[in-house]
């Protein structure tokens, strides 16, 4: 009991960092992933090829390796030192973690959104063209809303994975939930108990996130609910 009273307030300090890492990286990664998904549908081979190989590279390598390459590797490049904006990004662990998480989730998001865009019925797009809609208007009013409905369940899983992926930021000195858990472990030597409490915090956070995703999904798909049942009308028989 004393350990719980000691550990919970300390771990809650890292909760804000975990939420910040998730929110910022998901915001950047979603927009970048949407751009990559659109690029995959381009008629230009070099545009679609760049988006495809980007996705292959980041989905085919571990997130931990990507974090290490950005945190330890980019800082050794002289060009990065000479550009103040780039050095600002790689000079601090939390910013490196955001960059790695955003680039990683963008690759997965692009594939998820591409699947949603491919699932949009071609007839709807042709009908929009016949109505004189521009390409941007078609995407904003028809293709993207339908695609996000199709992609939301898979994207919800990606959000859960992102929350868990923030724990890897502790390897580059970022004090989020896992980072504070490591510090407590070295102070109390209660390895199992401390990380069990940290696991419960991650579980609670993901349960809330899953609940929010289900509410959004239910609202977006409310028009697909079962049709209301009507009573059969009795027809009087002729005497």
How would you summarize the topology of this molecule?
Blueprint lengths: L1 H39 L4 H15 L3 H11 L4 H5 L1 H7 L2 H26 L3 H9 L4 H31 L11 H12 L2 H30 L19
Describe the structure.
With 239 residues, this protein is an all-alpha fold. The protein has a single domain (2-222), classed as MetI-like (MetI-like fold). Helices cover 77% and strands 0% of the residues. It contains ten helices and no strands. The radius of gyration is 24 Å and the shape is flat.
Summarize the structure.
The chain has 239 residues and is mainly α. The protein has helices at 2-40, 45-59, 63-73, 78-82, 84-90, 93-118, 122-130, 135-165, 177-188, 191-220.
CATH architecture: Orthogonal Bundle
Total number of distinct structural domains: 1
Structural class based on helices, strands and sheet pairing:
mainly alpha
The termini sit apart by 83 Å
Q: Superfamily at the CATH H level? A: MetI-like
Largest beta-sheet characterization: none
Measured as a percent range, the helix fraction is over 70%
């Amino acid at each position: 009991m004393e350990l719980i009273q000691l550990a919970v307030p300390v771990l809650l300090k890292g909760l804000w960092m975990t939420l910040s890492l998730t929110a910022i990286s998901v915001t950047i990664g979603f927009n970048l992933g949407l751009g990559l998904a659109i690029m995959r549908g381009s008629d230009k081979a070099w545009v679609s090829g760049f988006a495809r190989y980007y996705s292959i590279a980041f989905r085919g390598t571990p997130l931990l390796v990507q974090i290490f390459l950005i945190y330890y590797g980019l800082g050794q490049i002289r060009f990065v030192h000479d550009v103040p904006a780039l050095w600002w990004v790689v000079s601090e662990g939390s910013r490196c973690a955001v960059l790695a998480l955003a680039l990683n989730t963008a690759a997965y998001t692009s594939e998820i959104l591409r699947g949603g865009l491919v699932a949009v019925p071609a007839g709807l797009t042709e009908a929009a063209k016949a109505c004189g809609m521009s390409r941007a208007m078609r995407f904003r009013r028809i293709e993207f809303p339908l695609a996000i409905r199709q992609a939301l369940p898979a994207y919800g899983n990606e959000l859960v994975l992102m929350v868990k992926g923030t724990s890897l930021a502790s390897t580059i000195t970022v004090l989020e939930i896992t980072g504070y858990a490591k510090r407590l472990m070295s102070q109390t030597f209660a390895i199992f108990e401390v990380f069990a409490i940290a696991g419960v915090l991650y579980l609670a956070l993901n349960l809330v996130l899953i609940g929010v995703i289900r509410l959004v999904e239910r609202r977006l798909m409310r028009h697909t609910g079962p049709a209301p049942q009507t009573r059969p009308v009795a027809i009087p028989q002729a005497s």
